[in-house]
Write a structure and sequence with these properties.
The chain is built from three helices and five strands, in the order αββαβαββ. It is an alpha+beta fold. A five-stranded mixed beta sheet has the order 1-2-5-3-4.
Length: 155
């Protein structure tokens, strides 16, 4: 039987994908004590297609970037579930770090990353409120528009 958080995801029409396997010399997550560090997740949808490809401010809109960040957050949750088995074990979303593939003059990165932040709060309520960093970058793997990493406190 699905836990409370998975029921919430289902009510939002979200099915967690199979977590992506690392493409280089790293692991998808590391747990130390009650902290779970999740490696950066790019904006692949459940079929493995990028939700948004290319640079924000040069062909990709803030709205498309926001949807991509939400997709990254879904992929983060898939990794968390793989790590701890049950999303109800999340005590707190501690921090998200977002990377936005940006044109040099693009200044709306925080609006893009709200796609990930809003999902965490929507799913976890107050436990989903977190610290956050948003960084504009010159390129991301596969020319993804957005990548998000996460730090979670787990039981």
């Amino acid at each position: 039987m699905a836990g409370t958080i998975e029921q919430k995801l289902a009510s939002l029409g979200i099915t967690l994908p199979q977590p992506a396997a690392p493409v280089a010399n790293y692991v998808g997550f590391v747990r130390t004590g009650n902290l779970l560090f999740v490696s950066g997740q790019v904006c692949f949808d459940a079929t493995g297609k990028l939700i948004a490809k290319g640079k924000l401010g040069a062909g990709v809109t803030v709205e498309q970037g926001n949807a991509a960040a939400r997709g990254c957050a879904i992929n983060l949750l898939a990794q968390v579930k793989a790590a701890v088995g049950d999303l109800d074990k999340v005590v707190r979303v501690v921090r998200l770090g977002g990377f936005v593939n940006s044109a040099p003059d693009f200044l709306e990165g925080p609006k893009v990353l709200n796609g990930a932040s809003d999902l965490m709060v929507e799913v976890f309520g107050d436990k989903g409120r977190h610290a956050r960093t948003t960084v504009g970058v010159a390129a991301l793997p596969a020319d993804a528009s957005v990548e998000v990493e996460g730090l979670f406190e787990v039981a």
